[in-house]
């Protein structure tokens, strides 16, 4: 039986890689490997998953240095010389082993005012937004984000600027900026235009490269820069 | 007011970049032509001294560079050296002034004087 | 466990960012020297001639070529950024990094041939 050598991070910020030998199976995913280790080799291994079919984003980890969804990563596609390296998702505090604390990721979402603010009540008629309108199309290109954190882990700016809001929060802010029903536009622009905001993006495009939903936060961040420039020139900021 | 300041810096960076792109192309072409001519200092200065168009062009070049370089370094200093805050901005303003002074001295030296 | 693992930085846009930043830093360091050397011309043609004579040395010619390549690389990298920031998103924008590199190299070649 062919064996895969899996190096798995144990500990927290301080720790080490521990090697396990896992039987290889056809169509095996990295999540399968982690699950096998926890169930048959070392029950003390801590990790997260939920749907295991590429919908929830809970299983995001660093595989051979790259942030990915482990349930959607085939071992055959990433194993190098019969070995893989599995570590927790980057740029987040490690709780234990492969489990990270995602609080800062969602706090930044809130700081970027990534929530909808409407003006209508249940007594008003529906807002009418045509789906083929350019603005709505731009919003639609970014709304499938499920907050998995892969983009956040793939952006060097997140590690170079601790306050940087990050690609996911900024992408969400952009989709709301494109939402004609939202009434919080100016405050949101102020929230994302500061020195830890969209201007910190230098188009390394790690986010766009890695997003499992094929969203391009780079495009959204560029849109925010344009919106801020217009607002600044109009004296609105 | 942070968003306003950061956005204006971003705009200044892009605007000065556009000016520099043009100036650099003209400058490189000029230098290549001048060098191929094999001119001496006296010959070059004879053509440039009192040339008002040249003075205005290169003064603009210097001004654009004095805006563009410090703003570019600002991001790098913050991200790679962790240097943020007022001290970084003061240092960069001084750098901008140094570029402007050195540059305008060079421009006056080459293009100054009566036609 | 490392942050910013090099295996996650293999895509072209990352290389383009790095070239843009490093060329910017080197140019920002070179520029004050360039302006100071030019301002020597303020002392008259004789000093300027000394400077011109120095620039004829082969090592200086190679360095000049290097500066031109840095300029071209920084300029094309900046144009990549402007295209990403100002134009609506299109998939071809991901290939801008390669385009920028090609144009920068073309510049370098042209300058080398002109020298």
Keywords:
heterotrimer; B: about 120 residues; mainly alpha; 3 helical TM bundles of succinate and fumarate reductases; 4 helices; about 85% helix; about 0% strand; elongated; C: about 120 residues
If you had to describe this structure to a student in words, what would you say it looks like?
By secondary structure, chain A is an alpha+beta fold. Chain A folds into two domains: 3-100, Roll (Ubiquitin-like (UB roll)); 103-233, Fumarate Reductase Iron-sulfur Protein, Chain B, domain 2. Helix content of chain A is 35%, strand content 15%. Chain A has a five-stranded mixed beta sheet with strand order 2-1-5-3-4. The longest helix of chain A is centred in the last third of the chain and has 17 residues, at 217-233. Chain A starts with a strand and ends with a helix. Chain B is mainly alpha-helical and 115 residues long. Chain B has a single domain, classed as 3 helical TM bundles of succinate and fumarate reductases (Up-down Bundle). The model of chain B has no long low-confidence stretch (mean pLDDT 90). With 115 residues, chain C is mostly helical. Chain C has a single domain (8-114), classed as 3 helical TM bundles of succinate and fumarate reductases. In chain C, 76% of the residues lie in helices and 0% in strands. Chain C is built from four helices and no strands. The longest helix of chain C is centred in the middle third of the chain and has 29 residues, at 58-86. Chain C starts with 11 loop residues before the first helix and ends with a helix. The radius of gyration of chain C is 18 Å and the shape is elongated. The interface between A and B is medium-sized, with 21 and 15 residues.
Task: Please outline the helices and strands.
The complex is a heterotrimer of chains A (237), B (115) and C (115).
Chain A: E1 3-11, E2 15-23, H1 30-41, E3 60-63, E4 66-69, H2 75-78, E5 83-87, E6 94-96, E7 99-100, H3 103-111, H4 134-140, H5 150-153, H6 156-160, H7 167-177, H8 185-192, H9 206-210, H10 217-233
Parallel strand pairs in A: 1-5
Antiparallel strand pairs in A: 1-2, 3-4, 3-5, 6-7
Chain B: H1 2-37, H2 41-48, H3 52-80, H4 86-111
Chain C: H1 12-39, H2 45-55, H3 58-86, H4 96-114
Task: Give a brief description.
The complex is a heterotrimer of chains A (237), B (115) and C (115). Chain A is of the alpha+beta class.
């Amino acid at each position: 039986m062919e064996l895969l050598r899996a190096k798995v991070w144990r500990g927290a910020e301080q720790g080490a890689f521990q090697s396990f030998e896992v039987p290889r199976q056809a169509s095996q995913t990295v999540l399968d490997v982690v699950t096998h280790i926890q169930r048959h080799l070392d029950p003390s291994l801590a990790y997260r998953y939920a749907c295991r079919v590429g919908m929830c984003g809970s299983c995001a980890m660093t595989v051979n240095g790259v942030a990915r969804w482990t349930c959607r990563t085939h071992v055959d596609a990433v194993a190098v010389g019969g070995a893989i390296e599995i570590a927790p998702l980057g740029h987040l505090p490690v709780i234990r082993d492969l489990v990270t604390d995602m609080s800062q990721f969602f706090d930044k979402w809130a700081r970027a005012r990534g929530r909808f603010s409407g003006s209508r009540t249940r007594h008003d008629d529906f807002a009418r937004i045509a789906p083929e309108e350019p603005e709505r199309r731009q919003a639609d290109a970014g709304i499938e984000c499920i907050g998995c954190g892969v983009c956040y882990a793939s952006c060097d700016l997140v590690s170079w600027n601790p306050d940087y809001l990050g690609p996911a929060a900024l992408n969400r802010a952009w989709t709301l900026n494109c939402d004609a029903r939202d009434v919080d536009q100016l405050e949101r622009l102020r929230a994302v235009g500061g020195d830890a905001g969209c201007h910190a993006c230098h188009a390394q495009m790690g986010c766009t490269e890695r997003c499992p939903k094929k969203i391009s936060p780079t495009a959204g961040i560029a849109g925010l820069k344009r919106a801020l420039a217009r607002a600044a020139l109009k004296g609105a900021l | 007011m942070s968003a306003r300041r950061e956005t204006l810096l971003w705009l200044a960076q892009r605007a000065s970049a556009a000016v520099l792109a043009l100036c650099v192309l003209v400058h490189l072409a000029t230098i290549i032509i001048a060098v191929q001519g094999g001119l001496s200092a006296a010959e070059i200065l004879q053509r440039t001294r009192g040339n008002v168009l040249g003075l205005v062009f290169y003064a603009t070049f210097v001004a654009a560079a004095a805006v563009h370089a410090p703003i570019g370094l600002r991001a790098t200093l913050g991200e790679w050296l962790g240097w943020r805050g007022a001290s970084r901005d003061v240092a960069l303003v001084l750098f901008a002034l140094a570029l402007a002074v050195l540059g305008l001295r060079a421009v006056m030296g080459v293009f100054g004087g009566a036609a | 466990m490392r942050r910013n693992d090099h295996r996650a930085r293999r895509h072209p846009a990352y290389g383009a960012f790095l070239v843009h930043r490093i060329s910017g830093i080197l140019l920002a360091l070179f520029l004050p020297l360039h302006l100071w050397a030019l301002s020597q011309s303020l002392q008259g043609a004789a000093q300027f001639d000394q400077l011109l004579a120095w620039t004829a040395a082969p090592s200086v010619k190679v360095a000049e070529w290097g500066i031109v390549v840095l300029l071209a690389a920084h300029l094309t990298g900046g144009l990549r950024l402007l295209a990403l920031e100002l134009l609506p998103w299109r998939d071809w924008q991901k290939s801008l990094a390669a385009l920028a590199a090609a144009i920068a190299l073309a510049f370098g070649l042209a300058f080398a041939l002109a020298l």
